[in-house]
Amino acid sequence: MSDEQAKLKKLEDAGILEKRQFAPEELALVAKISDEEVEVLVKLRKRLGAPAADKHHIRPNIFV
């Protein structure tokens, strides 16, 4: 698994994004963020809590 794929998996496992909701070119941009940025996003998701199950369409709300 490449570093970029590992970042995407970490973000998906943390409930920050669902890869199926993004175009390949969007995923490529997200995969280029730094490891530190990934950690900040994971910590932020933990603080905010998981989105409601019926709100999957707004799951990547921390990118807004």
Keywords:
64 residues; mainly alpha; 3 helices
Explained architecture:
50% of the residues lie in helices and 0% in strands. With 64 residues, it is an all-alpha fold. It has one domain. The termini are far apart.
Helix percent reads: 40-55%
Computed over alpha carbons, the radius of gyration is 11 Å
Cα-to-Cα separation, first versus last residue: 28 Å
Strand share of the residues?
Answer: under 5%
Structural class: mainly alpha
SS elements, strand count: 0
Low-confidence stretches: none
Q: Characterize the overall form.
A: globular
**Could you spell the SSE succession in H and E letters?**
HHH
Mean pLDDT: 83
**Number of H/I helices:** 3
Q: Please summarize the sheet with the most strands.
A: none
Domains (count):
1
Question: Which secondary structure elements does this structure contain, and how are they paired or packed?
Answer:
Blueprint (H helix, E strand, L loop, with lengths): L2 H11 L10 H7 L4 H14 L16
Task: Give a short synopsis of this structure.
With 64 residues, this protein is mostly helical. It contains three helices and no strands.
